[in-house]
Design brief:
This protein is 64% helix and 0% strand. By secondary structure, the chain is mostly helical. It has three domains: 34 residues; 102 residues, DnaJ domain (Helix Hairpins); 76 residues, HscB, C-terminal domain (Monooxygenase, Up-down Bundle), CATH 1.20.1280. Helix 3 runs antiparallel to helix 4 and helix 7 runs antiparallel to helix 8. 18% of the residues are buried. Pfam families: HSCB_C (PF07743).
């Protein structure tokens, strides 16, 4: 009887944790989608390190008053840095455009004649923009980062605990790719893989919007395997050239 009660209490505890986790993500996702582009999550307004004037725009790469480069803002998300909506299906063309614009203004070569502090800030900002761009560019790293924002720290190489049917399917695809004797056959496998990745993208986006983080995690694990196959297809095709 006592064991039954303990199991029941544990079940309710797990359900409560999942409900809180889902509620927290839904609140975050909704708020991120509705925030103004230059919204700063911090409560304290920052001032320019050089002229001490308030920095109105967040993230502030440069002071609007004295035009001096600023240090990276602590705790700012990659989505804010790249001026993107916090969504799994973001516009990668807009992301690339933002990246090029930032690197043109922040690149260390532009600050070779400036003070040591400005050179250091340039290197830090440029490196941060590079990391943000690379993380958000690919769906897999983007999705894992979105989970990390909710406290789910997952490495890209984490084992998914995939079922045997899924692993068997992956083995068959890899074998077919190894045995492909023509670029047409390899390309056929590549196109099929792209279709699976596109379907997973839709499913992951839906799971994130619903706050179903464990589902999103499992789908991202599947995406990792198909992304690996996509890379193998590219290597196979290059071998035919």
């Amino acid at each position: 009887m006592s064991t039954s009660l303990l199991n029941k209490d544990a079940w309710h505890s797990n359900m409560n944790i999942r409900a809180l986790e889902k509620e927290r993500w839904l609140t975050y996702y909704t708020n991120q989608a509705n925030l103004p582009r230059n919204y700063c999550t911090g409560q304290v307004k920052l001032n320019c390190w050089n002229c001490k004037q308030p920095l109105d725009k967040m993230p502030a790469f440069f002071c609007m008053s004295c035009k001096v480069i600023q240090p990276p803002e602590e705790g700012i998300t990659y989505f804010k840095i790249m001026d993107c909506d916090c969504t799994f299906t973001l516009d990668t063309q807009k992301l690339q455009k933002r990246y090029l614009e930032l690197q043109r203004s922040l690149h260390p070569d532009n600050f070779s004649q400036k003070s040591v502090k400005e050179q250091e800030y340039s290197e830090s900002q440029s490196a941060l923009v590079n990391k943000a761009y690379k993380t958000l560019l690919k769906p897999l790293s983007r999705g894992l980062y979105m989970l990390e924002l909710q406290g789910m720290h997952i490495e890209e190489g984490t084992d998914s605990g995939a079922d045997s049917a899924f692993l068997m399917e992956l083995m068959e695809i890899n074998e077919a790719l190894d045995e492909a004797q023509t670029p047409e056959k390899a390309n056929e496998i590549g196109q099929d893989t792209k279709g699976k990745l596109a379907d997973l993208t839709v499913q992951i986006d839906a799971a994130l919007r619903k706050g179903e983080l464990q589902t999103a995690k499992a789908l991202l694990a599947q995406m990792k395997y198909y992304a690996n196959i996509e890379e193998k297809v590219k290597e196979k095709l290059s071998g035919f050239m």
